[in-house]
Amino acid sequence: MTKQKFRVALAGNPNCGKTTIFNALTGAHQHVGNYSGVTVERKSGICHFDSMEVEIIDLPGIYSLSSSSPEEKVAFNELLTQDIDLILNIIDAGNPQRNLYLTTQLVELGIPMLLVFNMADDAHRRGLKFNLPILERYFGAPIVRTVGAHGRGLEHMKSEMARLLRAEYPQYPARLRYGEVLDGLIAQVEEMIAKLDLSALSGAPVRYFAIKLLEGDAYISSLPVFAPVIEPVAALRAKLAIRLGVDAETILPDARYGMISGACREAIRITNERRQQLSDNIDRVMTNRYLGLPIFLLIMFAIFALTFFCAEPFVGMLESLFGWLAETISAFWPEGRLEFLRALITDGIIGGVGGVLGFLPNILFLFLGIAFLEGTGYMARAAYVMDGFMHIFGLHGKSFIPMLLGFGCTVPAVLATRSIESEKDRLTTIMVLPLMSCSARLPIYSLLIPAFFPQKFQALIMWIIYVLGVVLALIGARIMKSTLFKGSDEVYLMELPPYRLPTFRSLLIHMWERSLCYLRKAGTLILLASVILFVINTLPQKTAFSKNYAEELRTLESSSRIPEADRKERILRLESEKKMESLEYSVAGRIGRGLEVVMKPIGFDWRICSALIGAFAAKELFVSQLSILFSMSGAEDDATPLQSVLRENYTPLQAFCMMVYCLVSMPCVGTVAVVKRETNSWKLTLLQLIGLTLTAYLLCLAIFQIGTLLQIGTSLL
Amino acid sequence: MEMEKISSSLEDYLEAIAEIIEENGHAHTKDIADKLHVKMPSVTSALQTLAAKGLIRYQSHSPVVLTAAGSERAAVIRLRHAAFSNFFREVLKLSPEEANDTACKVEHLVCEKVMSRFVSLTDAILQRSDCAELRKYLEQTMPQICPEPTEDLISLDCLEVGQSGIVVRVSNTLRGIKKFADLGLVAGTLIQMEGHAPFGDLLRIRVMGSSLSMRAKDASHIWLRLTE
Fold first, then answer.
1. C-alpha–C-alpha distance, residues B56 and B74, integer Å
2. pLDDT tens over chain B, length 228 residues
3. Subunit contact B218:A388, Cβ cutoff 8 A
4. Cβ A389–B170 below 8 Å, yes or no?
């Protein structure tokens, strides 16, 4: 009985169309990216053909097979330890030299290979003619030509795969020659390590380890098995480097590229040197010294509009759906029975689910936009255009996109940081994102600013608040880059792939995959936190009120002496008073009272403190919480009476502190959940929470104390 | 006999004086200045020092004459020069000019003992019959090893938009040199400058049919020879 189960690894450079082939083979729903490092996680799928079961492992796109980046490490590990039966090396036929560089390293693993010259149509258009038999002999592996995007050549590829997998004697790749000197040295190192016991290592050939040791690969060199030979090998390397007049690190890359250009000279002919004119022309405009920036800002605005304006009607629909759901349940709920349970379901759970799903339209549209930017290849250009500016603050060029989205909502903004491949830059960006004043804070500003500031200052105050957030974010990034995420910047070397038009299907697949990911991971946390916040806002329930509201209500309703309108308002006021008493009695209210001691120096009383606890669930709840606390019947949209009450109770200085505090202090539950998910660290999440709150406190302390001292804003302007 | 130490520049003067006397029969201050490409006053002060050490006899307006000690000293230096020059020419296969220039630089550094052993080594390599294989090897490989001189190279960040060049050398001070090498930035690669980012120090180049962006400060470590 021959083997029926096989493992095949897909390896190739970024942007070589590897994922398209993977999708075609497995039918798995996965994104086709045009941007370095879309597939960082391990992806695999099962594929059945020719009565075989083949597990396809999609390795991340890499340029080289060492262990210098996370992607390379993943690929390296996978190939070394997973008993791979066949490597499917996908090569962008339009750029054979660069792509074959990886091939030269894969060949050394001694695993049968199939070379797939993908995007063969593209190569044809560029006038590249291949003499495949020469290349096949050179690498000792058969070559097939495909056009992944149109599905051409895939059947032939599958039949070749089947032939190689079923072969009685596996076809091992050829032994490459690195030139006289280097070959001699490799043999010397091979001899050295042949004496060692390599049984603990995987089945890679001795020669492979010899090459990797000569290359000075960090991971292989750190293996304890090789400890005895490290020194002599290093001496050989150093001598060789002087002999060749190159850096020790680049001895092998030099040799490999030399080898490839030799092979290509024989096997590849360029009939007409016509490059991808279109892509170059587009770039001449897109990354132009003067036009690049305005175009970038325009595209950013389009993404912003897509995420927030296009999603708006859907958000509204979802909100009314959940409102309707809560009302329906309340309507059918038996009067006076298990009131708390009803409230928990309608306000807590449905409210929480609504909170999670309320973001969904924004997130779907955002991911659609980002998938498009990545799919076309513009993302790399965006970084290129913006890097000069962002670099001043220790941020990456790509940090700009999430920061801009942060003005809409922090949750999708944090998710958008995924396109930043440098880990330090990504974390720094996430840490400062809540400082970009999100749209949920807008109701707070539009309540407080008109209430406390004269018309002519209103725009200025609003502007100050927004700018303050941006300035703090940039300063924060700079500080974090020189403390928490210290260390030299990562080397900036990024490919700008040719522009391609992604298929709509691949955009949708990508959008849906990422959105699902958000729902699964962040959604549960947001839901949980919303329920907890609901509980502390309602429990313990107050049973003994200062006056008998039920009684008074009944008298009001039955009394016919008071006019209709007046009566309605008094009823509403009574209800709000009751709510306020309950809230004061609840855990949140008590915490608010407790916090008052701490918050006094920044001018906050217990009511503001309690409202802040509400704001933790969602920033805009600050307003509704305040209106409850001031027994105002007005809903959010009708805040005018609330404004006059506030004016009686607070000074403009306090109002300003409130706004600054809401801007800077702890981000909302959704943000915390999504930050936890994206940083994968409670430590960083809590650090952000505490750091921001502390900053807000100190900032407000300074503003309030100095303001009080100088008598600025202590009375109405 | 232990010779008194003199500086390498004084050794150069002594050597030059001996050579000029051999050529012309007598050495004038002007000739010395011309040969060493230095100013007259420097020659005068050097000659005074040499005279004080008893290596030459020197009076203004008359030719310089070597003392017995001076002649001996000069002969030693010239022998060394010849030995080094010979080694560079015959073993390392450098051109006569290169061999001569390099010999001038290193001849002062070595002590007598090392020198005589070095001369025996050179002789052995060049004459012994059991070194025939080695001589053949040197004949073959040495001429191939030639990193290009840096003088007429241009660093990548100085390339004008649209200009192309072939990488000749990547300075090993480049941070992350392996990453650059992996992406094809190795000696022999053709690079074309495509443009600069709106602000900041990013530039983009075309390498092997794809565009790469990198920082100018990294690019300044990559040296190119311009092509048409």
1. 11
2. 446 677 888 888 888 888 888 888 888 888 888 888 888 888 888 888 888 888 888 887 788 888 888 888 888 888 888 889 999 988 888 888 888 888 888 888 888 888 889 889 998 998 888 888 888 888 888 877 766 555 678 889 888 888 899 998 888 788 888 888 888 888 888 999 988 888 778 889 998 878 899 988 889 999 898 886
3. no
4. no
Nearest to A24 by CA among A115, A165, A157: A157
Does the beta-carbon distance from B214 to A293 stay under 8 Å?
no
- Chain B closest CA to A395's CA: distance in Å? 13
Helices (H), A333-440: 339-343, 350-358, 360-376, 378-392, 400-405, 410-416, 423-432
Neighbours of B6 (CB within 10 A): 17
Whole-prediction pTM: 0.72
Residue A278's contacts (CB-CB under 8 Å, 6 or more residues apart) are A499
Does the interface ipTM go beyond 0.85? no
Q: For residue B195, give the nearest of A287, A391, A488 by CB distance.
A: A287
Measure the CA–CA gap between A678 and A682, rounded to whole angstroms.
Answer: 10
Burial B25-61 (b: 16+ CB within 10 A, else e): eebebebbbebbebeeeebeebbebbbebebbebeee
| B196: contact with A, CB 8 A cutoff | yes
Please tell me the CATH superfamily of domain B154-227, with its number: Ferrous iron transport protein A (FeoA) (2.30.30.90)
Min Cα separation A97/chain B (Å): 7
CATH 2.30.30.90 domain span(s) along chain B: 154-227
- Provide the shortest C-alpha distance from residue B124 to chain A (in Å): 22
Residues in contact with A296: Cβ distance below 8 Å, sequence separation at least 6, in sequence order: A381, A382, A385, A386
Range(s) of chain B covered by CATH 1.10.10.10: 1-145
B1-145 is a CATH 1.10.10.10 domain: yes
Nearest CA in chain B to A294: B198
Q: Point out which residues pair with B88 in neighbouring strands.
A: none
Q: Which domains does chain A show, CATH number per domain?
A: 5-166 (3.40.50.300), 180-270 (1.10.287.1770), 524-710 (no CATH)
- Count, residues in chain B: 228
- A interface mutation test: which of B211, B215, B221, B222 has the most A CBs within 10 A? B211
Q: Which amino acid is at A383?
A: A
- For residue A534, give the nearest of A596, A618, A592, A607 by alpha carbon: A618
